[in-house]
Every structure is written in C-alpha cells, then in structure tokens.
Specification:
- By secondary structure, the protein is mainly α.
- Helix 1 packs across helix 2.
C-alpha cells in the first residue's frame, strides 16, 4: 500500500533553484575555484618576496591582492551558507573587501615615499 505524498500547510514553501543548467553552474564554480587558487599562488609568491626583504610595498601588494580576489569569494561562499544573510549584505561585504584591496594596491603603486 502506498501513501500519497501531501504537503503540510505549515511547511515552508518550496523554492526553485536558479542559476542555469548544472553544467553552467559547475563551470562557474570551477572558474571561481581556479581564480582563487591562482590568487593564492600569487599571494604565496609575494609573501616569499616579502620575507626575502621586499619591504612594506610587497606586504601591501600581498594584503591588497588577497582582499581583492580571495576574500570576496570566500565571503560569498560562507555568507551564502550562514543563516539569514541577505543577498544585498553578501554583495556589500564582498564589494567592501574588493574596494579595500584595490585601495591598498593603488596606495602601494602610487606611493612615492
């Protein structure tokens, strides 16, 4: 005997997933993962240069690059999987990280000291 599936009136509404086909979503996630790995590889290279005596400009580039590339990706993933964080808040936090990273990089590039 089979029991028909019914939805209880108090259950939350079912939400449809968005983002396109599974192949497109997988390709986008793979591209983000590759970009993150590459940014960490460049950051590791900058860190080694800083440790060899590269000075504050090298450290500034390191911090700026991480804030510009890696941190926003991680924030988007983490904040998507945390309780009630709106899409606007996620975008604002990730964009603030990118802005801070870009300002640091620009400060290092245009510093004449």
């Amino acid at each position: 005997m089979t029991v028909p599936l019914t939805i209880h009136p108090a259950s939350p509404p079912v939400q449809a997933a968005t983002g396109g086909s599974a192949a497109v979503v997988l390709a986008a996630l793979l591209a983000l993962l590759v970009a993150t790995v590459l940014s960490l590889a460049v950051a590791a290279r900058l860190y080694r240069g800083y440790r060899r005596g590269g000075g504050r400009p090298m450290l500034g580039l390191l911090v700026g690059l991480i804030l510009l590339t890696t941190v926003p990706f991680v924030l988007r993933i983490v904040l998507t999987n945390v309780g009630d964080v709106s899409a606007t808040t996620r975008a604002l936090v990730a964009t603030a990280s990118q802005l801070a990273g870009l300002l640091i990089v620009l400060t290092v590039v245009f510093d004449r000291g």
